[in-house]
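re: the backbone from monday

yeah here it is again, tokenized this time
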């Protein structure tokens, strides 16, 4: 899928012409209420969270569509909406 480089804060994923910052610590879940996380877990089981930083929406969409193929989950698109996948972004 590309080259992944561990770094101190955000790791870097380079794929094709895209560069994404990746935080796999799961700390992003602190932005959700306990009840919301419980709802996620009731729907999907144990959850894993990634925070992605990107400059290009097209790169983000391409990455998420490839990375989530065959999986079920949610994407918080940072606009106040949770999008379920598999999905078309």
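seq for it, each position gets an aa:
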């Amino acid at each position: 899928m590309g080259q992944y480089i561990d770094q101190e804060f955000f790791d870097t994923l380079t794929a094709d012409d895209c560069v994404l910052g990746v935080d796999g610590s799961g700390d992003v879940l602190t932005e959700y209420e306990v009840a919301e996380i419980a709802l996620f877990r009731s729907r999907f089981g144990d959850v894993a969270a990634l925070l992605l930083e990107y400059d290009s929406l097209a790169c983000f969409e391409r990455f998420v569509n490839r990375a989530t193929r065959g999986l079920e989950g949610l994407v918080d698109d940072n606009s106040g909406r949770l999008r379920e996948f598999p999905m078309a972004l």
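Residues 21 and 55 are 9 Å apart (CA to CA). The mean pLDDT is 86.
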